[in-house]
Structure formats: structure tokens, C-alpha cells
């Protein structure tokens, strides 16, 4: 009897000590761009949360919106630059992959653009097989001809390439997740054969977020063991603290999008928060990007960029 009472008191004490599950709520949503300014998509906040970088139509070009000055600046007009571009942790540059056609064949180039003076450096020139880049702990990581490469930009202003000793990252190759760790790579198929989309490592690099086409979005460990099923959730992204997942719930008629809203889920899948609920706007592709949990950006199907300001409770 005494043991039962002691155990009950211990449970109540632990409940009193442990903080309640934090939740997020929308404080306000504002349109950063207007339709007459152009069509934009795939926004990301800079690490300090002061600017938003996004793509033009069909991944062409990169543009930057200054949240204080409320101005848009064209960074470049390169074809393909908007597809999975990366912003450095210090906010000083953006890395992207562009492409050109020669005699009907596509050639990719990897480039780095300085956000201070807008200068562009070519890191890889005209390769037939070149993955979109990843930026992890001051290193640019990418696959060239299925070989993992890195460019270390944290220790020296001189860019040095090597194939050894760098942080882990994930890619999609032939619809399968590829996990790169150092100079090694291995395929991950947590749910068996199928089409894997939008793989992303958690901020601490210990968990994997991905979408399995026709089924839903999941979180697994790096051995492929499923930890959480988020459900129907497209274009999912991690929050800066790794505790939340932002995503879009979209529908189409087989030809065009008919609706889409932005949601947030806790990593355990128990909390689902709807950020948008509009009949005339099709909201898509959310992204935190910055280190601030309270700022989240997304775009609309008609090409506007929006900023959602969140509050924690």
C-alpha cells in the first residue's frame, strides 16, 4: 500500500516538474509580394530572419525580399537556380545549381553567390550528373556522378574539395533515399520499394523526415525504423528546434491544384495545427529557414510570398 502511494506521489511530482507540451498558434499572416510584382515560389528565410529568398517561375532566378525595407532585389536570373537552393548558416551566401543545354543535352553547374556584394563563383562547371547541393555545418555537400563531394567553406576562404570526413546529408537518387556519411553512402528504403520524396534530416542529424508517395509522410531513425507517421503531408520541413513539422495538404483534380492549406504537426504526430484556411488562396511549400521558430514563410499557387508570425504557448 505504501509503495502504491509513493509511486502515485512520484508520478504527480514528475508531472508538476515536466513542462507541458508547447503549442504554436498563428499571430498574423501577411503577403510580402503582390501579384503585379511577379510570380515567386519556394521561399526560405535567412538565418537572422531579416530577409526572404525565393525563386521565380519554373525555378528560374533567385530574388531577395528585405523585411525591413520591404523591397525585392533580383539576385540572378539563372535557369534552375531556385530548385533546392541553400542559404549558409551565417547568411552570407546562397548555393544553387543551374543548368544549360548543349546539343540537346543538359549540363549542370554548381554556384555560390555572395549576398554582400552579389558576386558569383562557379564551384562545379557543366557536369552531366550533379545533385542539388546541401549545406551542413559549414560544408557544401553534393553528388557528382554518384560520388559524394564536399567543399569546406568554414575553415578557409580557399575552397578545398575532398571526398572524406564530412557531415551526413540525404539526397534522392532514382526515387530512393541516399544517406551520405563521410565518403560512404547507403540507400534507405524504410517502407520498401516505392517513390520517396522530400527527404530531410532533423537539425541534429539523428532522424529522417520523408514522404512515401501514395501513402504519407513519416519520421524514421537512420536505420529506417519508423518513429512517427505524420499522415498526408506534402513538402514537409523541420522546425529549427526539431520539434515540429510544417507541410501542405493539397488536392487536385488530376490536372490542376484545387486547394491547399498549410499545417504544422508535432514530431510525435499528436498535435496538428492548421495555419491557413482560405477559399481563394492555394498556399504551398512552407519553410522556416531561419533560426526563429516564430517565423514561417510559404508561397501561393498564383505566385505570392507570405510570412506567418507564430507564437508559442
From TrEMBL:
Organism phylogeny: Bacteria, Pseudomonadati, Calditrichota, Calditrichia, Calditrichales
Keyword Signal tagged: yes
Designated name of the protein: Biopolymer transporter Tol
InterPro entries: 6-blade_b-propeller_TolB-like, WD40
Family: Belongs to the TolB family.
Annotated Gene3D superfamilies: TolB, C-terminal domain
UniProt entry tagged with the keyword ATP-binding: no
Residues in the signal sequence: 1-22
Short name of one Pfam family: PD40
Annotated SUPFAM superfamilies: DPP6 N-terminal domain-like
UniProtKB keywords: Signal
Amino acid at each position: 500500500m505504501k509503495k502504491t502511494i509513493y509511486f502515485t506521489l512520484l508520478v504527480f511530482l514528475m508531472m508538476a516538474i515536466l513542462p507541458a507540451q508547447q503549442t504554436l498558434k498563428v499571430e498574423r499572416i501577411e503577403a510580402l509580394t503582390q501579384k503585379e510584382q511577379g510570380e515567386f515560389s519556394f521561399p526560405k528565410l535567412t538565418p537572422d530572419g531579416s530577409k526572404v529568398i525565393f525563386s521565380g517561375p519554373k525555378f528560374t532566378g533567385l530574388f531577395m525580399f528585405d523585411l525591413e525595407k520591404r523591397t525585392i532585389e533580383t539576385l540572378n536570373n539563372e535557369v534552375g537556380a531556385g530548385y533546392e537552393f541553400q542559404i549558409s548558416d551565417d547568411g552570407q551566401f546562397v548555393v544553387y545549381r543551374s543548368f544549360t543545354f548543349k546539343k540537346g543535352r543538359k549540363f549542370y553547374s554548381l554556384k555560390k553567390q555572395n549576398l554582400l556584394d552579389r558576386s558569383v563563383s562557379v564551384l562545379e562547371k557543366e557536369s552531366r550528373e550533379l545533385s542539388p547541393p546541401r549545406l551542413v555545418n559549414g560544408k557544401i555537400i553534393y553528388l557528382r556522378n554518384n560520388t559524394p563531394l564536399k567543399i569546406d567553406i568554414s575553415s578557409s576562404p580557399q575552397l578545398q574539395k575532398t571526398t572524406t570526413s564530412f557531415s551526413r546529408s540525404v539526397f534522392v537518387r532514382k526515387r530512393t533515399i541516399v544517406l551520405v556519411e563521410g565518403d560512404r553512402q547507403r540507400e534507405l528504403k524504410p517502407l520498401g520499394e516505392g517513390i520517396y520524396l522530400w527527404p530531410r534530416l532533423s537539425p541534429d542529424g539523428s532522424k529522417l523526415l520523408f514522404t512515401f508517395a501514395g501513402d504519407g509522410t513519416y519520421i524514421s531513425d537512420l536505420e529506417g525504423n519508423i518513429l512517427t507517421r505524420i499522415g498526408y503531408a506534402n513538402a514537409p520541413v523541420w522546425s529549427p528546434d526539431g520539434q515540429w513539422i510544417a507541410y501542405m495538404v493539397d488536392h487536385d483534380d488530376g490536372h490542376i491544384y484545387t486547394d491547399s492549406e498549410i499545417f504544422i504537426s508535432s514530431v510525435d504526430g499528436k498535435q496538428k495545427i492548421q495555419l491557413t484556411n482560405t477559399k481563394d488562396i492555394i498556399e504551398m511549400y512552407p519553410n522556416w529557414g531561419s533560426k526563429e521558430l516564430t517565423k514561417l514563410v510559404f508561397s501561393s499557387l498564383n505566385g505570392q510570398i507570405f510570412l506567418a508570425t507564430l507564437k508559442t504557448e
